[in-house]
Structure formats: C-alpha cells, structure tokens
Amino acid sequence: MKAIFLANRKQSVDYVYSEEAKARLRSLVDIDTDRVYSQEDLENNPDGFGDVDFIFSTWSMPGGTEEKDNFAKYFPNLKALFYAAGSVKYFGQHYLDRGVRLFSAFAANAIPVAEFTMAQILLANKGYFQSMRMVRRGHYDRASEYSKSHTGNYNSKIGIIGAGMIGRNVIKLLKKFKLNLYVYDEFLPRSAIKALGAKKATLEEIFSECDVVSNHLANVPATVGIFREAHFRLMKPNTVFINTGRGAQVDEPGMLKVLRERRDICALLDVTIDEPPMEGSDFYKLDNIFLTPHIAGSQANEVERMAEYIIDELERFLQGKPTQYEITQEKFERMA
Q1: pLDDT tens for residues 201-218?
Q2: Label partner for 301 (CA 20 to 30 A): which of 151, 225, 238, 268?
Q3: Which domain covers residue 93, as residue numbers?
C-alpha cells in the first residue's frame, strides 16, 4: 500500500509525527517519511500521484472549498485520508464526494481541551483568576474576601454547552467532584444527558443558574453569535464564562458591554473572533477578562497522541476491524 505525507509545512508533520510514529508507519505501509508533499508539488506534477492509496497529514493540509483548490482530484485511487489533527471541515468534503474514507484525530485533540477546561472550572469556582490579579496589585485582603464570595468546588452548578467529544470528556473529568452538571445540547435527548450524569437545560437556564458556563459547541453556521448580550446579563454575581470553542459563537460587542458594566462576572477566553484581538480592544483593558492564545488544544508532547490515534486507526483499517474515528458525511456536517 503506497502512502505519502501531504502538508504545506513539513515542520507540521515533523512536530506531530515523532520518529517512533514514523517508524511505525513504515512498518505498516510503503511511505517515505522523510518526504512531505505540498500544494505546490501537486500542482507541478498533477499526474504523479495516481498510485497513492493513503494520505497522512496534520495541520497545514492543502485544501479548500473552491474547485480550484480541490486537491482530491490529484489522487484518483486514494482509499483513505488520515488526518492527525482535529477538524477536517476546510478540506474534507471533496474527499468524501469521491468516496475516500476520512479519519481524524479529533478525539485525541479533545483530551487536552477537556483537561484545560476542567482546570479552569475548578480554579474559577475558587475565584482564582481575579483574586490573583488583585493580590498582584497589592489588594491581598480584598482578594481573600473576593475568593470567599465564590462557591468553591462542592455542590456548585456547572453548565456545559455542547456535549460532543470535548463536552463529554469535560463531564467525565468533573464526575470525580461533587458538582451539579447541566448540559445544553439540541441533539441529545433528556435521557442521554441523564445517562451522562447531567441535567438537560436551556441556554437561559444555564446562564442564569450556573456558577460556571463552559462553551463546547461545534463551529457551524447555526451557532454563530448564539451567545448574546441577553445571556450574559442573566449571569449570577461572581460567575464565570469559559470559551474554548470558537470566538464566532459569541456576540462580542454584547458580551463586552455587559463585562464593562458588571465587573463581578468574569470571562476566560481561549478563543476570540480575531486572534489576536485588535490592538486597543477592551479584551486587553478589562480586568474581568483573561485571554489565552488558543492553547487549549494539543501542543508540545500532547500532539504525539494525535499521531498515535491516527496510526491505531490505520491498523484497524488494514486489519478489517471496526474503526473508531471515521468522519462520515453525517458527522462531517455536524462537526466543528
């Protein structure tokens, strides 16, 4: 079986696929792990990839929605594409249209996001973020009192918005704590959410009743701007909004307006519409906003898990065993 690496940046492949992972690939398929083909290579030699059975890739995979960017056409005999990263949304449709089986390491990428979220939730319930900033500015006693105004991590109410792979992992991690979990997910019935150990709730219920609200919705047209000014106005005193989903899901002007007026509530934002936000933005000025540079997903040692998942999937594929992380058309339409 002939395979290639396909990515516009060789360093992306070298970052995600360790030497051990490359050796494992060589034991399973015919692949030159020292060579990474790019968009330019395809365009310069459009007839040179007819014998390729499998593509392995990660971040910087060539692709697009326009026909001129339809790189699937260069691989007439391609059987499967293995993507050692998360979303395949920007390139995957053309491959699905040609009957190519598509696999993603979205489940591996969900793990560090869930771990990051759990850590933020537990710290948020102690008033950690704003009290730390107060201490740094010399307000030790004020910080101590502020922290005590939070619920702590016993019987607090946590709202999980979106129970996909990431949301479910967050719920699983939080189960070891004595917390009350509420879930908003339009695709899951009440019985399925109950089976997760949570209570089904509306967006309005989550924003008005929960001590921490954490967003894990898929980035699809229906979720753009779903969190409006009115939702943030519902938040109880000293509550926290966490966003590791997508910035586009937030009405940012509406959220900022509420955060300017209500310094008791707090936003922990790993994502924004513009990354980074524009210079001079209130995202940098407000004391109750804490920005991180889109770091919740896989990085450093964590990326090796993505390659491991995708090579495990290759082994199942070659052995005719049921695969775990295939992106079907139905899943493609619902994923971020």
Answers
A1: 999 999 999 999 999 998
A2: 268
A3: 3-104+300-334
